[in-house]
Specification:
Layout lengths: L1 H16 L1 H9 L8 H10 L2 H28 L19 E3 L8 H8 L4 E4 L5 E7 L2 E8 L5 E6 L4 E3 L9 H8 L5 E4 L2 E4 L6 E6 L2 E8 L5 E9 H6 L9 H21 L6 E2 L1 H17 L12 H7 L6 E8 L4 H9 L2 H7 L6 E8 L5 E9 L1
Parallel strand pairs: 12-14
Antiparallel strand pairs: 1-6, 2-3, 3-4, 4-5, 5-11, 7-8, 9-10, 10-11, 13-15, 14-15
């Protein structure tokens, strides 16, 4: 009852306080003399204490509205474009990314890219150093023991090549200059067969492996490239990375960065990491890995939304992506982007937060869970 009274007083105060602004223009068309008795009545009813209480309520309400609008605006804000670097022709081989090539020393990389945003463990037993400006000009690279580049990845328009390999080029054009992709990798006495994958080609040239990823939703055009030196690839003697906490955390953070880089490239806002959502996702990945199943609904019949609520998350909209068996966060992300429903989840405009959880089964196969939501 008291709240309703304050709401009524709030309305009266707003109208009455704004009278100097609307009284003049309105009086040109309407005789407002009938309001004089009302003015006196309002002034007699609204004693100083009631006016102060109503004004406090008004301030609180306005503050809440402004805060809500501010939060929504911030969440939907797309980063301002940053300048793309001038791309020079590669000098060490046939391809470069952000003017970085396999074999380039760290000093030259620092001169080109500056300081990395973060470092995470990767499946090759080295570190991905991640560079970007609000997830634009996105690059990940790795160094060998001599601090020369032995791996590079980008899903941005940063590819320069002496033979015409570029972001957005059709797959047929890539195969036209590179030939047919290889179907296996020989490592010592072992031969690793590659699965048929419309979304990726693998080529070998100039002492490096070139993984070319295609966007199946954009006519099989180049959407990302990963370059791995032959020496680094040969050191990876197993299909899957070793199961440990550093690898789990590395995959989680890399997948988070890759998702934001993809969102920004498609004109979406940057998502904020949420620890509760990450915990929810990690528990589900662990459960799937431990009990040998792959489903949005767990063995207790709980949906992603049930699990998120159980973790204490409050949301107005939410979604979940799952991936299983991909040997790296990069392969998981590129696969999700080529799956219609998963891609739609990644690119939903209204999402504000993301939590990612990864775990491994006994065969060291990773399970990836992404939980998106907005408040």
């Amino acid at each position: 009852m008291i709240k309703r009274l304050f709401q009524l007083l709030f309305l009266v105060v707003i109208i009455y306080a704004a009278k100097p602004w609307w009284e003049g223009p309105v009086s040109e068309y309407v005789d407002l003399s009938f309001l004089d008795p009302l003015d006196a009545r309002v002034e007699s009813v609204l004693d100083e204490e009631m006016i102060e209480s109503a004004l406090d309520y008004t301030k609180q309400t306005i503050s809440t509205i402004v805060s809500f609008i501010s939060d929504k605006t911030a969440a939907s804000r797309v980063p301002d474009p940053v300048e793309q670097p001038a791309l020079d022709a590669p000098t060490r081989g046939i391809i470069s990314i952000h003017n970085i090539e396999i074999g380039m020393p760290e000093a030259e990389v620092q001169a080109e890219l500056g300081v990395p945003v973060r470092k995470t463990t990767n499946e090759y037993g080295t570190e991905w150093l991640t560079f970007h400006q609000n997830y634009q000009n996105f690059v990940m690279l790795s160094y060998d023991i001599k601090r020369n580049v032995n791996a590079i990845y980008t899903n941005d328009r940063l590819i320069s090549s002496s033979i015409g390999i570029e972001y957005g080029i059709p797959r047929d054009d890539i195969r036209g200059v590179m030939g047919e992709p290889i179907t296996e990798i020989r490592k010592g006495t072992n031969i690793y067969k590659l699965q048929d994958d419309e979304g990726m080609d693998l080529f070998y040239s100039d002492g490096m492996y070139m993984y070319v990823f295609y966007d199946l939703h954009k006519d099989h055009t180049v959407t990302a490239v990963q370059l791995i030196s032959d020496t680094l690839e040969q050191k990876k003697t197993a299909l899957y990375a070793p199961k440990n906490d550093a690898m789990r955390k590395g995959f989680e953070i890399q997948l988070f960065d890759l998702t934001n880089a993809a969102r920004v490239r498609h004109g979406r806002s940057i998502l904020t990491w949420d620890e509760k959502a990450s915990s929810t996702a990690r528990k589900h990945s662990l459960d799937m890995a431990a009990h040998d199943y792959f489903s949005h609904e767990n063995l207790q019949g709980e949906s992603p939304f049930d699990r998120m609520k159980k973790e204490g998350l409050k949301f107005v909209s939410a979604g979940e992506n799952l991936a299983y068996g991909q040997s790296s966060s990069i392969f998981a992300h590129e696969g999700l982007m080529n799956s219609k429903g998963h891609r739609e989840n990644i690119l939903i405009r209204d999402y504000q937060f993301l939590g990612i959880g990864v775990d491994f089964n006994e065969k060291e196969q990773p399970f990836y869970t992404e939980n998106f939501f907005s408040k």
